[in-house]
Amino acid sequence: MSLTIHRRTFGSGARPVLAIHCSLAHSGAWRGLSKVLEGEATLHAFDMPCHGKSGEWDPDMGDLHDVTTAEALKLLTEPMDVIGHSFGATVALRLACERPDLVRSVVSYESVWFAAAMLDEPEKFTAYVDQNENYEDALDAGDRMLAARIFNRGWGDGSTWDNIPMPTRQYMADRIHFVKHSGPFVIHDAPDLLGSGKIEALQTPVLLMQGEKTAETVDAVNAALARRLTHARRATLPGIGHMGPITHPVETAEAIREFWASING
User: Residue 265: is its pLDDT beyond 70?
Assistant: First the structure.
């Protein structure tokens, strides 16, 4: 069974960058950031399985995170800087662990690698479970629109659900199952990158970004990763939430520029 993946490129700068979007978005989410970085970087992006113009993922194709990582790897045709947002950040960090020869640096904006938080601050992971309990119930009951509404309340850009255009709401509802199927990596660390010590062995420079309005679970993830990553630093963007790369591309780009400059190029 084959999977069609839609790819696109933004900008024409000298720095090649792989950009991996968050769940329920698509590669066009990088348009704002790419405009700010247009003269400095060329962003190579793709629609993850089930998203944008890419095909639907089927369990017979293999684990969802494995498949998404494999598709991302196809774009790493040379050593690149990698930027990932939310679920996309978990893919970015995995690429750095598994193919450090192809990843020059990682910008991780609010990674949802909850398995890391579970190891160090399990009580904060419990808060995430409580937040998503009704989401799981709605999804199990087949009410995809309600599941998307509940999920968006915790991970959206702060917009009231009823003020989001119906086509966007429907887009999210049609893909809400993606979140549940991300669990083997996000929650259980299926490839054992944390338990095996691969994360501690990583020498790649990493910027762990978050917004000031972030959920405490994401803050716990970044804290846990910072303890394990030798070459990581943290950055918090004032007044910004989980969707920072989309809602505040200028501020996000400024932090990325500073990070790139600090690693000499």
Answer: no
Helix (H) or strand (E) holding 69: helix 64-75
Chain center to CA of 264: 25
Question: 92 is written with which tokens?
Answer: 């970015």
Say which residue, 134 or 55, is predicted with more confidence: 55
Provide Rg for the chain, Cα atoms: 17
User: Residue 15 class from Cβ within 10 Å (0-12 exposed, 13-18 middle, 19+ buried)?
Assistant: middle
CATH class of 7-121+186-262: alpha beta
Do 200 and 227 contact (CB within 8 A), yes or no? Answer: no
- Overall size of the chain counted in residues: 265
b/e burial code for range 110-133 (CB count within 10 A of at least 16 → b): bbbbbbbbbbebeebbeebeebbe
SS3 44: strand
- pLDDT tens by residue, 1-34: 679 999 999 999 999 999 999 999 999 999 999 9
Model pLDDT, residue 198: 93
Segment (H or E) for 186: helix 183-186
pTM for the whole structure: 0.95
Hey, where are the domains in the chain?
7-121+186-262, 122-180
CB 56 within 8 A of CB 24: no
With 70 as the cut, is the pLDDT of residue 138 above it?
A: yes
